[in-house]
Amino acid sequence: MPVVTFHDAVAYWHDLDQACRNRDLPQKTPGPSVGNATGSSTGLLSPSISVARSLRREVSWNGAYTLTWHQEQYLHRFVDHTTGNTPIQDEDAGEAQLQKICWVVSAPREVVEKYFGKARKKILKEQDKVRHKMKRQVADEEARKITEAKALLQRKAAEAKAQKEKDWDEMLLRIHPEPLKGSATVRMRRVRSRFLQSSTGGDSQKWEDEITQAIREIKMAAKETLPKKRPQFWPGPTPTRAVPPPLVNNHPEKSVNVLIAQQGPPRPLKEPTKRKNSGKGSVTQGEFTALAAFDDDLIIQAEGPSKAQPKPSARRGRFQWNWDYDELARDASAIIRARCRDSYRLDWAALEQVFPAVPRNSVRQRIVALKEVPGAEAYLKRLENRWYDLWSQHRGTENLPDDDPGSHSNFSLIRHVEFLRRHIDKNALYASHLLPLLVSSQTV
């Protein structure tokens, strides 16, 4: 088919484009032939494999303008690699410079602007990568410094603890070279625990005095051995005169007697009737007392000669706890725990003095629930230690009468609670407990 007119040329190149790019067309098409050679209007064809491959490449038929390597190198001069700016961002002389560049490279303006846009985008992307990398490096460096600081603090804390333990061993060996045994070890362990927890470990004279006082009390307790059969009535020590401790200004609290009166009538406890014959299943007076010590709601009434039936009683409403009763329970718990330090178990019988209308087990469970609050257990421990020191100094005096200091329940808990509230600064105990928490949070 001869190519004569413009439309013939367009049709020819369209057919040639389809033949080279469209894989669905047949590989061979019939055409004129002269002898054994394929001919055309211009003469014989001399096929070349390189020309065929060039025609078959997809890029050979790209209709868009493609910049050469030399054109790209010339345009590359006008890109600022620091900021990514090109003549397009230049508002003053950018238009004239852009026209000159297009004239020099002989390329359409759209192609030049597209090249500058892609170059600017690539530079800005690389700058973002560099900034992100620097931020990540700074964060890693700060994390490394924090980790090293924490490890240093832990190492210093361990060294300080080891030093305090060493100071304690040297101090104890200097004051009491002989080894401690039995209850003496338990008492000295309490002093050691307070020494390790204190922040004023440098005041060695204070702790030497406490160790000396503890050893003196241990020796006095060993000498004052009680007889095997204790007399029924012990008159107790005569109150001695002592300088009263200073008064403190605590948070306003209701009087203990007012709190007791607001609880209502005390809980009744009926004893069983006496019987001459105690058959199988009967409860004696001693057994009733032992059972009542563990179950406050036990009320037994004898019916018949051979069985005891619990008497139904009116059900009381749930006791309404508030801040005043919780604080009273904390103070009473500290006093009872300090008094029972030398015993193998706690005796909560004295709680009935300040909670006559509440079962003893309910008060004990309330104290356990209060200790689960964060920081409450540490505060109660500090309050118990402070009360133990105060009680050891003033028990049996006219300031704090105590006829039987060895008894766990035969004392006036009401008077002891009032004495604690008058002479122990509980606000300071709260503050000294919260201070380590604040210091640790600031360090982190």
Molecular structure report:
By secondary structure, the protein is mainly α. Among the domains are: 6-61, no CATH class; 264-312, no CATH class; 322-444, no CATH class. 55% of the residues lie in helices and 4% in strands. It has helices at residues 6-21, 49-56, 69-76, 94-105, 109-175, 183-197, 204-223, 256-262, 285-294, 323-339, 351-354, 360-371, 376-394, 413-423, 426-443, and strands spanning 33-34, 37-40, 43-44, 300-303, 307-310. The strands form two sheets. Strands 1-2-3 form a three-stranded antiparallel sheet, with no helix packed on it. A two-stranded antiparallel sheet has the order 4-5. Helix 6 (183-197) runs antiparallel to helix 7 (204-223), helix 10 (323-339) crosses helix 13 and helix 10 packs across helix 14.
Order of helices and strands: HEEEHHHHHHHHEEHHHHHH
Question: Per the principal axes of the C-alpha atoms, what is the gross shape?
Answer: elongated
Share of helix among residues? 40-55%
The unreliable regions are 31-40, 225-236, 278-283, 286-310, 437-444
Distance between the termini: 88 Å
| Count of DSSP-assigned helices | 15
Number of strands: 5
Beta content: under 5%
Radius of gyration: 49 Å
In short:
This protein is 55% helix and 4% strand.
Task: Name its key features.
444 residues; mainly alpha; 3-stranded antiparallel beta sheet; two-stranded antiparallel ribbon; 5 strands; 55% helix; elongated
Topology overview:
Blueprint: H1 6-21, E1 33-34, E2 37-40, E3 43-44, H2 49-56, H3 69-76, H4 94-105, H5 109-175, H6 183-197, H7 204-223, H8 256-262, H9 285-294, E4 300-303, E5 307-310, H10 323-339, H11 351-354, H12 360-371, H13 376-394, H14 413-423, H15 426-443
Helix pairs in contact: 6-7, 10-12, 10-13, 10-14, 13-15
